[in-house]
Amino acid sequence: MTPKASPRRIHLCLCHMSGNEQRYIDEAFADNWVVPLGPNVDAFENSLQDFLSKGDPSRDHLRIAAVSAGTAAIHLGLILAGVKAGDEVICQSFTFAASANPVTYQGATPVFVDSESDTWNMDPALLDFAISDRIAKTGRKPSAIIPVHLYGMPAKMDEIMMIADKWDIPVVEDAAEALGSSYRGHACGTFGNFGALSFNGNKMITTSGGGALVCPDQESRARAVFFATQARESYPYYQHENIGYNYRMSNICAGIGRGQMTVLDEHIAHHRRLAALYASLLADVEGVDFHANPSPESDANFWLSTITIDPSLTGGLTPDELRLHFESLNIETRLLWKPMHMQPVFSKAPAYTNGVSSSLFSRGLCLPSGPWVTEEDVEMIVSEIKRLASR
Ligand SMILES: *Cc1c(COP(=O)(O)O)cnc(C)c1O
Asked: Domain of 279: which CATH number?
């Protein structure tokens, strides 16, 4: 029997307030801190810093700059890494366009590197090959590397950092989807020379829109804030010696962020609980694979739970057929990110491919995973997948 469309739309990942956000916003109004700096911004940055270095003294040196978007954080990371017009920057191909767009803001060219099939993230061996091949072809080193922890699944950061160190190339780690994930016991976002977080409405926590740059020390954090506030020099008048940006986070948004930090651990636990339930309920479904942690070294936040489908084992069921079916039930699912090397806007960018991300794109689907999704929702969704996969 086909269930009726849910009267309540089930979203992939919809923001969820703790109830504490309003208090911080009210404080900002009461004290007239309705500007892109203030007590909420300071407190939100400190709380992110605590979260990322909690129980991990090797991360104590990190400092956070809260900004207006994850995309802005990546852009600032590239600026601080020294990326200039005419440079090449290596970027994971299997990602959201926001990983690659800031490369072009700098007048640089993205060079895309494909994924490995266990993590779905940048293939370290292909990265190493791509760097040597770019040097052979252009006579110059790429000026930065952007790996991504897609859907919150950690990339193999130790391997990637070893290759980056060998070639002496800075890494801007895109952890927009990976707040709460860790790899070999360290928080995602803390491996690269810089790390980028996102607090868009659909991410692990939200500030309505916002992001943060994870910086290696106080000095580079000050540099990031300098570029995020129009690169104003310290003179009594407005003196500018660099091009700057208006990228700082508003004290109102940071108030939302402070409230969200009080439920971050709960959100992460909820995403992981749903992922474990999907994994166990789907374990015996032939032709449907849950994307699980590939080894005990990875501890994903499961921002989105994802599956791949083999139509030859599911009576020809395709991910898009499944998506349309769920849409008719008022349930949001989404095809996996279309790799950047397949995007018309990046058709001229060099790409090092191995078939992994294009294959995942054709086989995969993201399932509802956020704080409003219940265990009953997951059971119903899986029973629909089972029904359609065994036609
Ligand atoms: C969301 C996202 C970003 C950008 O973050 P915004 O806050 O939306 O600008 C960057 N990279 C990835 C992989 C993302 O999912």
From this structure: 3.90.1150.10
Helices 264-282 and 375-389, interaxial angle, to 10°?
30
Determine the Cα–Cα distance for residues 175 and 251; give it in Å rounded to an integer: 23
Q: Are residues 171 and 119 in the same domain?
A: yes
Which listed residue (4, 54, 137, 203) is catalytic?
A: 203
The answer to the question of residue 157 being in a domain is yes
Q: Could you tell me if the CB of 249 is within 6 A of ligand 1?
A: no
Structure confidence by residue, pLDDT tens digits, 323-375: 999 999 999 999 999 999 999 999 999 999 999 999 999 999 999 999 999 99
Residue 121 lies in a domain: yes
Phi, psi for residue 306 in degrees, rounded to 5: -130, 150
- Model confidence pLDDT, tens digit, residues 229-286: 999 999 999 999 999 999 999 999 999 999 999 999 999 999 999 999 999 999 999 9
Give 307's strand partners.
Answer: 290, 365
- Residue 149 CA: nearest ligand 1 atom is 13
Per the structure, the complete domain to which residue 158 belongs is given by: 21-263
Structure letter (DSSP) for residue 365: E
Residue 35 lies in a domain: yes
Q: Does a structural domain hold residue 109?
A: yes
